[in-house]
Specification:
elongated, alpha+beta, two-stranded antiparallel sheet, about 160 residues, four-stranded antiparallel sheet
């Protein structure tokens, strides 16, 4: 059986009870069961849902990286690395995913089930973000040797 978000209709990702409990505000813990899914749509305000209960970004205490509009946007929850930290590393000279990982500590935290609202490893998301920024730096270096700024990024850089 497929579970789709009641707001956007996107198929959800199954998440464990411990993941939901780690991120939902404590006043909603009594509503948590083993049957929740995570909505992966950036534009949708739903974070977790099951057949009867929906938790939105307002009922969740953790910023959900690709649903977040403001800064700082988390990329790696285990190591507490943000988009801004990655950009800083690139502005300091990192020119590969591996160099960004080394400079920021992003990835390999091993606690994603609890720390990441999606209950998944962040690597799939941050690698795309880093590569996109590195591509813009390469273009920028050819153009005018400027640093990357948050304003240079589009809001959909971390599409899931």
């Amino acid at each position: 059986m497929k579970y789709v978000c009641p707001i956007c209709g996107t198929e959800g990702w199954k998440v464990k009870k411990i993941t939901v409990g780690s991120h939902v505000n404590p006043e909603y813990w009594h509503l948590i069961s083993d049957d929740f899914h995570f909505c992966p749509t950036p534009e949708c305000h739903v974070v977790y849902f099951n057949g009867t209960v929906t938790f939105t970004v307002k009922e969740v205490k953790t910023k959900v990286f690709f649903k977040e509009k403001g800064s700082p946007k988390p990329l790696c929850y285990c190591k507490q690395v943000t988009e801004e930290d990655v950009i800083e590393a690139i502005n300091r000279g990192a020119r590969s995913v591996e160099q960004v990982e080394e400079m920021t500590g992003i990835g390999n935290g091993g606690h994603c089930l609890i720390t990441n609202p999606s209950g998944r490893c962040c690597r799939q998301f941050y690698v795309e973000f880093i590569n996109r920024i590195l591509e813009s730096v390469t273009v920028g270096e050819r153009d005018d040797n400027r640093e990357v700024q948050m304003a240079d990024l589009t809001k959909d850089c971390c599409k899931v």
